[in-house]
Design goal:
Layout (H helix, E strand, L loop, with lengths): L1 H12 L11 H25 L3 H21 L3 H6 L2 H22 L6
Length: about 110
C-alpha cells in the first residue's frame, strides 16, 4: 500500500511542485527532462493501477490544483530551500495528508 501511495505521490505531485521554472539554458533542458520523466511515471502508474479515464482526469485535476495552490502560496524554490527542515517537513506532510485523503476517494479498494 505504501508503494502505491509513493507511486501516486510521484505521479500527482511530481509536476505540481514545479513552483518556478528555471531560467538558465541548461536548467531548462533539465526541467524539460524532469517533466517528461514525471509524465512517464504518471502513465506507468495509471497502467499499473488500471485507472479509468475518469480517474486519470481526477488525478490530473488534483495535480493541477496542488500546483496552483503552491504557486498561490508564494513559495518559490528558493523559499523552500531556505526553510528549516521542520518547516519543509510540515508543508510536505500537509500536502501528503491532503493527497492521501484525495486518493481514498478516487481509487477503488483494489487499487489501494
Amino acid at each position: 500500500m505504501k508503494t502505491v501511495f509513493a507511486l501516486i505521490a510521484i505521479a500527482v505531485l511530481g509536476t505540481g511542485l514545479g513552483i518556478a521554472q528555471p531560467t538558465g539554458g541548461g536548467q531548462k533542458k533539465n526541467f524539460a527532462e524532469m517533466r517528461d520523466k514525471m509524465k512517464e511515471r504518471r502513465e506507468e502508474m495509471a497502467t499499473k493501477l488500471n485507472l479509468s479515464e475518469d480517474q486519470k482526469a481526477q488525478m490530473d485535476a488534483f495535480r493541477e490544483s496542488q500546483k496552483e495552490k503552491m504557486q498561490a502560496s508564494g513559495y518559490s524554490r528558493e523559499d523552500l530551500k531556505n526553510m528549516s527542515k521542520e518547516e519543509r517537513q510540515a508543508l510536505m506532510m500537509s500536502m501528503k495528508e491532503e493527497r492521501d485523503a484525495f486518493m481514498q476517494t478516487v481509487l477503488s479498494p483494489d487499487q489501494l
